[in-house]
Amino acid sequence: MSYSQIKAMWSITRGSLRSITRSPSAMIFSFIFPFVFILVFGFIGNGGGKQLFKVALDKNSDTLNILYKTLKSEGIVKFIEYKDEARLQADLEEGNLAGKILIVKNSEASSSPYRMVLKSTTASNDKWPQLKTILDNVNNEISNRVYKDRLSYAHFDFNPVNDIVTVREYKTIDFILPGQLGFSLLSAGVFGVAFMFFNLRNTLVLKRFFATPINRTFIILGEGLSRVIFQLITAVVIILVGYFCFGFTLIHHFRTFFDMMILSFIGLVVFMGFGFIVSGVAKTDSTIPPFANLITLPQFLLGGTFFSADAFPTWLQPISKALPLTHLNTALRSVAFEGQSLWQVKGEIGILILWGIVAYGVAVKVFRWE
Fold first, then answer.
1. 313 and 206, same structural domain?
2. CA–CA distance from 191 to each of 32, 250, 268, 288 (Å)?
3. Together in a domain, 59 and 143
4. What is the CATH number of the domain that holds 105?
5. Number of domains present in the structure of the chain
6. Domain limits at 26?
7. Are residues 99 and 209 in the same domain?
8. What is the rounded CA–CA span in Å between residue 17 and residue 27?
9. What is the C-alpha separation between 364 and 291, in angstroms, rounded?
C-alpha cells in the first residue's frame, strides 16, 4: 500500500489545529483583542464633531470668487476635488464628507452675482447643518463688506427636502469591524506562523518529520492549513457577531459574507508569508516579537484600522496606502458597505497578491528547517 501524502498532511493539520485552540496567545490575538475594540467602538457611536468640514467641490464651480477664496483661506472647510464620481458618491453616502458645494455665477443679472448650492446626505446629519450655518455666515459677512447695495453676494440655493438625500446609515461598526478583522488576520499570519514554525524547529519536531516519508511541501501545507482553518473560523465569528449584535452592514447578505471570507483568505495567506520570514530570521523566541512588531505595528497604526488614510498628513498618506493591510481593509469595507464585487476591488486584491509574491520570495531564501 502506497504512502499517502494527503492523509499525512491532514494528520499534521488536525494535530496543529488542536495545538492552536489550546494556545492562550492564539485566542488573545485572534479573538480577544478584536472583540475588545469592536465592543468599545460598537457602543460609542459616531460622536465627536469636527471643526474642519471636508466638502467636495463640484467640478463646474467657479474658484475665482471671494466666497470660495474666503472659505479656503480661513480653513473653515477643506475642499476636495474628485475625479471619480463613484468615489465621491461613496464618500457622501458614508458620511466622510459634509456635503458637495457648487459655486457659479448667477445667470440672473438683477439678483446676487453668484449662486451657491449645497447637497448632502442623511449620513452627514451631524455635519451639514453646521456647514450650512457657516456658509450663511461667510456669505452674509462678504455681502455686508463688498456688496452693501445687494441682497447678498451669493444666492444660497438650498432645500433640505430636495438637497439632502436619504441613504443607508454608515455606522462606526461598519468602519471598525473590517479594520479589526484585518488586524486579527495580520496578527495571526505573522505572530502565529512565526511562533509555530520556530517552535517546531526548536523542539526538533520538524527534524522528526524528516524520518517519515512525508514530503516537506506537505509539512508546510499541513501546518499552514491548520492556521488558515482556525483563523477563518475566527473571521466568521467576528463578522456574525458584528452583524447580529451591532448591525454591521452586509449589503448583499450571504454574497457579501462569502466575498469577505475570500478576501480574508487572501489576506491571511499573504500575511503568513511575513510570518515565515520572521520564523526564519529569528534566532531565539525572544527575538520573534521585535521582528514581528516591525511588520505589524506600522500596519496596525497606518493601515486604516481605526481611521482612513486620508486623515494622515499628506507626506504620510503614500506610505499608508502602500501597506498591504490598508488594501485589505479598503477591500473589506468596499465589499461590505458599498456592495462592490470582488472584481470591482481587483486593484486591492492585485496589490495584496504582489505583496504575497515578495513575502514568499524572501521567505524561501531565509526559511530554515533546522
1. yes
2. 15, 29, 12, 8
3. yes
4. 3.40.190
5. 2
6. 5-43+171-366
7. no
8. 12
9. 17
Q: Count CB-CB contacts under 10 A for residue 53.
A: 21
Is residue 280, in this structure, part of any structural domain at all?
yes
Q: What is the pLDDT of residue 46?
A: 45
Q: Alpha-carbon distance 354 to 349, whole Å? A: 9
Domain identity same for 260 and 243: yes
How confident is the model over 112-148, as pLDDT tens digits? 888 899 999 998 888 888 888 988 888 888 888 876 6
**Nearest partner of 119 among 87, 69, 80, 162, judged by Cα:** 162
As a whole number, mean pLDDT of residues 345-349 equals 95
Domain-ending residue, one of 101, 136, 165:
165
Give the three cell numbers for residue 243.
452583524
298-330 pLDDT per residue, tens: 998 899 888 777 777 888 889 999 999 999 999
Q: Is the pLDDT of residue 49 over 70?
A: no
pLDDT one-digit tens code per residue, 193-237:
888 888 888 887 777 877 778 888 888 888 889 989 999 999 999
Phi, psi angles (nearest 5°) of residue 125: -60, -20
The reported pLDDT for the residue numbered 173 is 87
194 and 324 assigned to the same domain: yes
Of 122, 142, 165, the last residue of a domain is 165
